[in-house]
């Protein structure tokens, strides 16, 4: 066994003899505060003063966070451009993203043709009742979806608009079509092919849209949610129904929700922004915290529909 040098042994001994009472004190403090905190939730016999102190402290922390949200944490870029008329939204995106032509022209390209399946759709809660509830309620002319993957929820919404007679509704999808690192290890994805590191999500999504005869109703922006949402804002592309379902960590969800909120049509009455993973295993990765914080910062009420969170915006300035 390696011998510790004399000077280190000396100093560590010195620290430990110094640290003992400090540690002891810290343990006592910890035990006291744990007991104090848990007992304030378990029994109501604690002095109201103690409980009020805890509540006041929590409120101070939240208020500080909310106040700070007035600054950089809530600053997501410039004021949006003037609204593009709804019937021109598709053309606007084709012009700005695809040099004016439909990406489905000459689809599929030969290098991926043999690797795609005729139709291959996987999603998460993509057919939940929330979609029909909201589309019936809002009857949106433009739907914006942040996080599309293979198009399961987007195509479900497309079918709903058809069924409800909303033939002109345009669905704008945003996804970088990268999934996440190693996503194809997932059992359900293990058959996804890859070409030089390209995971082919975009092509399989396009194939699915084509199979659903939805290439005129669905358009997409294959970039990161931050840059795509920023550009839609700049171009004046707004919607009445916006779904957020991209990355699920707090910071991504917070930024997506803030940016997506700006795309609710100004002057709109009865718009909705909603998203997945308020009530699933991903809760604690941050979606719920981001949604709750946003609600506080904007004085909104979080409504819940299945696994989804929903904000009804009655009066968007
Ligand atoms: C849970 S899936 C979306 C599922 C889809 N809404 C459905 O129900 O079928 C999340 C998607 O978000 C995309 N994504 C994650 N982070 C992103 C980012 N920063 N920018 C753009 N897309 C992102 C991933 O590529 C993935 O396709
Ligand atoms: C798409 O259109 C073709 C040709 O009109 C039709 O045969 C097919 O059934 C349609 N598919 C769907 C899913 O509606
Ligand atoms: C927040 O909303 C409630 C009702 O939803 C309203 O009574 C209250 O005045 C609002 N507060 C602010 C600061 O806007």
From TrEMBL:
<keyword id="KW-1133">Transmembrane helix</keyword>
<protein>
    <recommendedName>
        <fullName>S-adenosyl-L-methionine-dependent methyltransferase</fullName>
    </recommendedName>
</protein>
<dbReference type="InterPro" id="IPR029063">
    <property type="entry name" value="SAM-dependent_MTases_sf"/>
</dbReference>
<keyword id="KW-0812">Transmembrane</keyword>
<keyword id="KW-0472">Membrane</keyword>
<feature type="transmembrane region" description="Helical">
    <location>
        <begin position="21"/>
        <end position="38"/>
    </location>
</feature>
<dbReference type="Pfam" id="PF13578">
    <property type="entry name" value="Methyltransf_24"/>
</dbReference>
């Amino acid at each position: 066994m390696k011998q510790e040098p004399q000077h280190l042994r000396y100093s560590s001994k010195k620290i430990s003899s110094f640290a003992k009472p400090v540690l002891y004190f810290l343990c006592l403090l910890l035990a006291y505060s744990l007991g104090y905190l848990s007992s304030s939730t378990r029994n109501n016999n604690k002095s109201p003063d103690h409980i009020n102190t805890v509540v006041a402290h929590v409120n101070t922390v939240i208020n500080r966070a909310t106040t700070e949200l007035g600054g950089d944490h809530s600053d997501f870029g410039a004021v949006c451009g003037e609204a593009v008329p709804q019937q021109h939204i598709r053309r606007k995106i084709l012009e700005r993203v695809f040099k004016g032509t439909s990406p489905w022209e000459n689809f599929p390209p030969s290098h991926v043709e043999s690797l795609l399946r005729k139709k291959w759709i996987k999603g998460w809660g993509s057919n939940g009742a929330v979609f029909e509830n909201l589309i019936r309620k809002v009857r949106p002319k433009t739907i914006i979806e942040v996080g599309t993957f293979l198009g399961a929820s987007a195509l479900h919404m497309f079918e709903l608009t058809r069924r409800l007679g909303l033939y002109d509704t345009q669905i704008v999808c945003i996804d970088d079509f990268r999934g996440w690192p190693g996503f194809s290890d997932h059992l359900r994805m293990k058959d996804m092919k890859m070409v030089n590191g390209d995971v082919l999500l975009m092509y399989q999504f396009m194939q699915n849209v084509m199979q659903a005869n939805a290439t005129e109703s669905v358009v997409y922006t294959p970039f990161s949610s931050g840059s795509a949402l920023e550009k839609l804002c700049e171009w004046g592309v707004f919607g009445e129904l916006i779904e957020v379902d991209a990355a699920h960590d707090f910071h991504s969800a917070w930024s997506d929700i803030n940016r997506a909120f700006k795309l609710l049509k100004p002057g709109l009455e009865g718009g909705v922004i909603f998203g997945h993973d308020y009530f699933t295993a991903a809760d604690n990765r941050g979606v719920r915290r981001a949604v709750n914080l946003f609600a506080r910062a904007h004085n909104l009420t979080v409504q819940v529909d299945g696994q989804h969170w929903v904000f009804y915006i009655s009066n968007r300035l």
